[in-house]
């Protein structure tokens, strides 16, 4: 699963700027505590995150990032 997400992010040209403030955990980003991270919640933590980048990370196309998808996204993010 991580290879798919990493490949998608590379293809979409995910920039380091999108993860400049990415020092937060899943619970902190999931502000409505519903167990998933919406695009709006993700963009609060990473204002430069695009909808295409978010969709690439949303492997099951649920419209939200699960904890596993979030973890894979963070693992694929370029180091600051």
Automatic annotation (TrEMBL):
Tell me the domain of life: Bacteria
The protein's name in its UniProt record: EF hand
Q: Keywords, A to Z? A: Signal
Q: What PROSITE patterns is this protein classified in?
A: EF_HAND_1, EF_HAND_2
Where does the EF-hand domain start and stop, copy by copy?
A: 45-80
Q: Which organism is it from?
A: Devosia limi DSM 17137
Q: Residues of the signal sequence? A: 1-22
Please name the InterPro entries in this protein's record.
Answer: EF-hand-dom_pair, EF_Hand_1_Ca_BS, EF_hand_dom
């Amino acid at each position: 699963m991580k290879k798919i997400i990493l490949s998608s992010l590379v293809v979409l040209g995910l920039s380091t700027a999108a993860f400049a403030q990415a020092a937060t955990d899943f619970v902190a980003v999931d502000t409505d505590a519903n167990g998933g991270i919406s695009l709006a919640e993700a963009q609060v933590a990473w204002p430069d995150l695009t909808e295409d980048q978010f969709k690439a990370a949303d492997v099951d196309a649920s419209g939200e990032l699960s904890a596993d998808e979030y973890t894979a996204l963070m693992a694929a993010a370029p180091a600051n």
